[in-house]
Design brief:
By secondary structure, this protein is mainly alpha-helical. The chain contains 5 helices and no strands. The model has no long low-confidence stretch (mean pLDDT about 90).
Length: about 150
């Protein structure tokens, strides 16, 4: 497996786990509040799917930009990807919100899980970075002790 595909896979695993935890937490929260319905579950699943698509496109564009030999071409690729991803996200979340209103013929989603799903990937990424940084620090500390140093 190439380095870029491996990085995309690892990144997407973090996002997918975060979105799964988010979906379960939202459903549990609504259940505890006595407000759970199918629209809550569908809203959380829809929002999670939209964010998975958004971050998959982000990871792919970043991996392709990293393979570019020309820095200016890489920069243009990232900028174009960002604009398209933001447009796609706006359309997907907007459609989800529309399908949660009375204006829609079918009120299939609850609006709160659709909106809240946008925040969760950032939390997942931040937690992953903290865990990754701590494990790297532990490895560095262990290698220092292994070479005879006392850590001072």
């Amino acid at each position: 497996m190439s380095e870029g595909k491996k990085a995309v896979g690892e990144f997407m695993t973090v996002i997918a786990i975060g979105q799964a935890v988010y979906t379960a937490a939202v459903c549990l929260g609504f259940l505890i509040a006595g407000r759970f319905s199918l629209s809550v579950l569908l809203g959380a699943l829809y929002g999670s799917a939209a964010m998975l698509l958004y971050y998959f496109l982000f990871a792919r564009a970043t991996a392709k930009a990293a393979d570019e030999s020309d820095p200016e071409a890489a920069k243009k690729r990232i900028q174009a990807s960002y604009s398209l991803r933001m447009l796609l996200l706006t359309l997907l979340i907007g459609a989800g919100l529309f399908l949660s209103t009375d204006y829609s013929q079918i009120k299939i989603f609850h609006w709160l899980p659709v909106i809240a799903s946008v925040i969760m990937p950032r939390i997942s990424i931040a937690l992953w970075q903290i865990i990754h940084r701590n494990s790297e620090q532990k490895n560095t500390d262990a290698s220092k002790r292994g070479d005879g140093s006392d850590g001072n």
